[in-house]
Amino acid sequence: MKKNNFKKKTLKEILMANNILKFIKENRRLDGRGFLDYRDLRIDTGVIKKAYGSARVELGDTIVIVGVQFELGTPFPDSPDKGILLTEGEVLPTASFSAEAGPPSEEEIEISRVVDRSIRESEMVDLSRLVIKPGESVLKMFIDFNIFNDDGNIIDAAVIGVVSALLTGEMPDPEYVREHLEELPPNNLTSVPRIPIPTQDFPIANTIALIDNKFIVDPTFAEEMVSEARITITHTVNNEICAIQLIQGGLGYEQVFEVLNISLDKSIEIRNRIRELLGLGGD
Amino acid sequence: MKKNNFKKKTLKEILMANNILKFIKENRRLDGRGFLDYRDLRIDTGVIKKAYGSARVELGDTIVIVGVQFELGTPFPDSPDKGILLTEGEVLPTASFSAEAGPPSEEEIEISRVVDRSIRESEMVDLSRLVIKPGESVLKMFIDFNIFNDDGNIIDAAVIGVVSALLTGEMPDPEYVREHLEELPPNNLTSVPRIPIPTQDFPIANTIALIDNKFIVDPTFAEEMVSEARITITHTVNNEICAIQLIQGGLGYEQVFEVLNISLDKSIEIRNRIRELLGLGGD
Amino acid sequence: MKKNNFKKKTLKEILMANNILKFIKENRRLDGRGFLDYRDLRIDTGVIKKAYGSARVELGDTIVIVGVQFELGTPFPDSPDKGILLTEGEVLPTASFSAEAGPPSEEEIEISRVVDRSIRESEMVDLSRLVIKPGESVLKMFIDFNIFNDDGNIIDAAVIGVVSALLTGEMPDPEYVREHLEELPPNNLTSVPRIPIPTQDFPIANTIALIDNKFIVDPTFAEEMVSEARITITHTVNNEICAIQLIQGGLGYEQVFEVLNISLDKSIEIRNRIRELLGLGGD
Amino acid sequence: MSNKKGKKKKESNEEKEEEFIRIDGRKPDEMRPYKIRAHILRNADGSAEIRLGGNWIIAAVYGPKEHFPKFEISQDKAILNCRYHMTPYSTTERKSPKPSRREIELSKVIKNALEQAVVLEEFPEMSIDVYMEVAQAEGSTRVASVTAAAVALADAGIPMRDLVVGCSAGKVNGHIILDVGEEEDKEGEADLPIAIMPNLRKVVLLQMDGKLTHEEFKEAFDLALKGAMELYEEQVRALTTILKDMEIIEEGVKDEKE
Amino acid sequence: MSNKKGKKKKESNEEKEEEFIRIDGRKPDEMRPYKIRAHILRNADGSAEIRLGGNWIIAAVYGPKEHFPKFEISQDKAILNCRYHMTPYSTTERKSPKPSRREIELSKVIKNALEQAVVLEEFPEMSIDVYMEVAQAEGSTRVASVTAAAVALADAGIPMRDLVVGCSAGKVNGHIILDVGEEEDKEGEADLPIAIMPNLRKVVLLQMDGKLTHEEFKEAFDLALKGAMELYEEQVRALTTILKDMEIIEEGVKDEKE
Amino acid sequence: MSNKKGKKKKESNEEKEEEFIRIDGRKPDEMRPYKIRAHILRNADGSAEIRLGGNWIIAAVYGPKEHFPKFEISQDKAILNCRYHMTPYSTTERKSPKPSRREIELSKVIKNALEQAVVLEEFPEMSIDVYMEVAQAEGSTRVASVTAAAVALADAGIPMRDLVVGCSAGKVNGHIILDVGEEEDKEGEADLPIAIMPNLRKVVLLQMDGKLTHEEFKEAFDLALKGAMELYEEQVRALTTILKDMEIIEEGVKDEKE
């Protein structure tokens, strides 16, 4: 290893960034994809045996692992008849030269909250089915996702991971918990029989980047570095929008509708791809 | 805007500081006040509709907003028959070039604690009237004050703000809470009828600065920057001292009594000015 | 005081470090001790009247103070019939030029945990005797130790301090607490009659440093600075090993057994010395 | 409580816009009363205050100034720091003064919006601090905050490509509405806060939660744009007032000098 | 428990001072037993220990030394860092080792007191650290701490304009008393901790809470001064002892050299 | 549940080793199934993954690279940063992502182990970051983590004196066992995690808790060494695989160039 290699990653990225711009100007992408093509998607579910639901997703070189866990909790005063859903994500320091250990950065908090809203606002999980005793005791569902390698488009990959973990996951049977609340060891639900997580639909988030005034989907880390704007749009199975986040830059008024249309198309495509990979019936 | 203007505030302050010394030596103050004159005082109460009590105070260019809120709480073990009083203050980063966002500095903690002691030790609020069930349930009163613009003498302004908010504020009727404790939505007292906050007296804090061995009251930010010593003394309506804090520097033994006398005079004057501004009966 | 003295401590240490190496090569120690000699040990117990048990230990110039306190608590779900033991230690900023105020460093956390394991794994305190009501209420024992002056070998000194505080300390009578639980003022056990802490045995930790491929016991701060490896081994009264921590560096396979033998001898010696100093019967 | 009224009125699209009366008596496309004042704090390099219904937000700008610590400096442009913060008494239940995850996210999206407008390239190695303090919150605080912050930046004399102005739209009881209030945010079906550069016709803050069809989105987006343009007029008015005040002062200074 | 006794005795001013017996048996103007020892820690540049009744406080000084980080450096004088800290076992209920707001405030007022005495101008760009660790607390810890810290500074050879010595007075059951103990602080009507530079006759720490008339304040202040002067003698004694020890050592060194 | 079985089997030393069957069906001196893969993350300078029974740990290395902040730099060698971290879903009960005291201690002992092997002197003023993320924990995570980290360091091309490989032994129901599983750690009498430099024959991580006689320690230590040597073979295998992959790529590159 030579000493002038020490900042190699950073340099590599800069060189790549220059190439990206050059390529995009020539209506090409560095990895040969079309502007509206996603990278290869791979989903493994049930990868964490200790979790109630889990998935490992590879979207190109972006790697995310998701785990779903349950605890007993007290419902929020303003929604006594709903379980609690908590989504938290971290970009692990393994993920890239720029990721850091320590408390979550503002970028990580934003990503967590966008993923959370995508799941929550789509009403994918029927939270009313997580209630043990209204106003007193409910199941608290923790969804944690971690980015192990960041090659861009973290949010899309994380949402794919979360919905895969939920679709294939289980939860403690609330009926059983209700009937055996006294006998259960405190905060230990491992002995409780499990039922599938009550999901109703699943949302898809699509991130679109603007480079040299052209829209591309599923941007890589390097493409994100040179993008002028980046936006994530989440659609429900009924083609409703359930979350938008302009993550970076600005868009012309008309461009807003352009990205909405692209993302709608892509949401249908990715949803079908997930169904296929998970062996669920198509629509 | 020219680039040599970037540190303008700091420079302005330094220039001002020089002038202040020069002026004080000539027995004058930069803004024309006498050594023992307060700046103009303006009080608006009820400015925060969501709070049970609130006030906005302008003391010259120093601006403070105070809000009073209530929650249900458990009394401290050593005072089961008293409600809880919590006073916290922050100098917002809007307040001056030297104020910073982030956890409270030692100066902010000192200011909060001096204001807290002024209110607490004067026994202005009858905490025994905040009890729902002795030893079990009491009202917890939060007093929060924020400095939006700091032109010096924050403590005096904050105490004026707090007493104004308390004198004109309301609280949830403890009698009603006691009788309807079961029916009340958890931690939500908005539906509870309100009664005036049970105040018995109100304290006044007076800060006195020593510059060039002369005492001045109500120092500005710039005057504080050049002061050799600064002390805050709080008096009750019965002319008792209920809080002292030597904030900066040192005083000769005799000077201690000098500042006590000045502050007593000023406390009477400011208390009357508050009564006037709030439309309360004079003494 | 001359200005070139400002970093005197650091310089002093460096000079000392050179001497240490020179001395060790000559089979000597700077303070005249043999390689397997401990420094003078002094133990004062009952030094903190407010604590249930306390000790001040001087091991050469290393000074540690230990306090033991009790509170009511809830047992851990997986051990409903055991009291709670919490050991925490800090190297106070008074202890050396390199000690710092602030949250505990990784070294301080390691030291705390090694001391905790030495006490816990030896089962010195019979935690089953700290139970008020199984699964509901137990005594929580806090052991806090602070290093006031660090001249090396903190762990050995801290364990000596902790066992001395426990052997001579008292605790609230759990029987009494059980019978008077309702009447007791919340979280205040001062009125409860006391009984001796139920100890069964006491462990001894011995730290051995490797310098110039020679083993020395009870290293000073300066000796620690030049040591190639450092390991702490704790033995029970039955000559069982109950904790090991390789704190720094590495050891050859055979060296591991060498240090185990040294530490066993030393543990017997130091245990007897403690018994003598505390006036307990020898074995 | 508005639910009953709302549900009754669910009729044809044309009619409903006319007849739907909101919880606070507003028409669907009606803003709450608003007022912007610039230059309200003496110490800040720039400042502004916005009242929008019950919202009361104070913004202050410090800078451009040297950035610390040095190793964070940007060689080619200024660093923009933004803090959106709620005071403890701004909400019905007391809010801890420590920034929540929500406040950190909003600070980040507001920073992105303002970065599009401020000519940061003029101040390499410097930083500009923008602070927004919510004294009282009543729905749509983030767009009101960015609106006040832009006025404070202009008041500080910081060069900008355009102002930034924000407004929200939403969906309540099936109706698309302008300028979402607190109750409407809680009870409603969707919330769409946006901020734009009105002359450059660029969206610089765009978030949504809830559920909207593409048609509803368009309706809501257009409504929010309309609201933003209305608030933009108020921004200009507030800045013009200040400018006039300044001119009077400057003339006064000239008079003195002569 | 002292209440009954105290209330009975509320008589004329002259009489009461004679007859009022405090909870621990002290007369109103009587200090608790005290003892100061300097130079008790080997590593610190200076150190001291004070025992005042049940209070036991250990102070250490490190410095002057280079200050980090560089951008905080003061060009014209040394920075004085002060930490007043209570150990977990210093109070009846276990205290978390994390500094409380009270400890931060006391660190700040103690720093101000010591800054008046230390000749910081002699050490530009340097810093001096003063640590006070309360091993056991029994009322009036802040004034005991500043008293020990001043001795530790002197022990470190740091140039000072004067020593700093603290003492408290208070009001219990209507009586003005010297050197407020823990129970008296909790049950009493007022607490007045002060610290002075005894030769320069300056008050450098002054706080009060509770209620006192101006007359009572004067009485309490004069009593606290008296107590401080008494403790000052003990400071001098402790430092003289050390000085003698040092001379003996130095002479020993000389002897060796010759 | 294993207790019953274990207690029955407590017979003579020779017999028991033969007959004792562990909770997961293993023989006393049997490792769980394991697998190491190197170079699994694209961004890291080096990376590796270990599976050891239910343990799944991913390690990444970044560096050598410039160290910030500057005043912490070491003039004569690189600084090695190590973080051992458990993901929230790695344990049955959700783990807060904030590092616990346990994680901080393990990061420290792992750092010490790796420092013995890495030739830090080659990179003065630089730093090397080693991150170990536990995706699933099932006993003996620390030794599995250090084993993966060493492979990641080698994968990054960082010069090392030797690999570092870890393994644990323990005592369960009176039997000395190899490679302690989660249940065995909870229910067992002792746990002995070690890490070694296998060619230099040095122990670089050594911890123990529980109770062991000196004889039992020797038995456990030798067993752990045996396990570590077995895992070392797997490390070498994983690295050789990568090396072959690289050669193929390099040859490909050469071919292209020619």
Give an overview in words:
Chain A has helices at residues 8-25, 106-121, 154-168, 174-179, 221-226, 253-278; strands at residues 41-45, 53-59, 62-73, 84-91, 131-133, 137-149, 170-172, 194-196, 204-211, 214-217, 229-235, 241-248, 251-252. Chain A has 283 residues and is α+β, with helices and mostly antiparallel strands. Chain A has one domain (39-278): 2-Layer Sandwich (Ribosomal Protein S5, domain 2). The model of chain A is unreliable at 1-8 (pLDDT under 50). Chain D has a single domain (21-243), classed as Ribosomal Protein S5, domain 2 (2-Layer Sandwich), CATH 3.30.230.70. Classes of the chains: A alpha+beta (283), D alpha+beta (258). The B-E interface holds B 106-107, 109-110, 112-113, 117, 120-122, 231, 236, 239-253, 256-257, 260-261, 264 and E 101-102, 104-105, 107-109, 112-113, 116, 192, 196-197, 201-214, 217-218, 221, 225. Strand 12 of chain B pairs antiparallel with strand 9 (202-212) of chain E.
Salient structural properties:
heterohexamer; A: 283 residues; alpha+beta; Ribosomal Protein S5, domain 2; four-stranded antiparallel beta sheet; 6 helices; 31% helix; elongated; disordered N terminus; D: 258 residues; five-stranded mixed beta sheet; 37% helix
The spatial strand order of the largest sheet of chain D comes to: 1-2-3-5-4
Helix/sheet category of chain A: alpha+beta
What would CATH call the architecture of chain D? 2-Layer Sandwich
Give the CATH topology of chain A. Ribosomal Protein S5, domain 2
| Largest binding interface between chains | A-F, 40 and 38 residues
Q: Supply the number of structural domains of chain D.
A: 1
> What class would the helix/strand composition of chain D place it in?
alpha+beta
What's the architecture of chain A, going by CATH? 2-Layer Sandwich
Number of domains of chain A: 1
User: If you consult CATH, what is the topology of chain D?
Assistant: Ribosomal Protein S5, domain 2
Mean pLDDT value of chain D: 90
Sketch the topology of chain D as an H/E string, one letter per element. HHEEEEHEHEEHEEH
Shape of chain A: elongated
The count of strands of chain A amounts to: 13
CATH class of chain D: Alpha Beta
Proportion of residues in helical segments of chain D: 25-40%
Main sheet: strands, sense, barrel of chain D: 5 strands, mixed
Q: Per DSSP, what share of the residues of chain D sits in E-state strands of 2 or more residues?
A: 25-35%
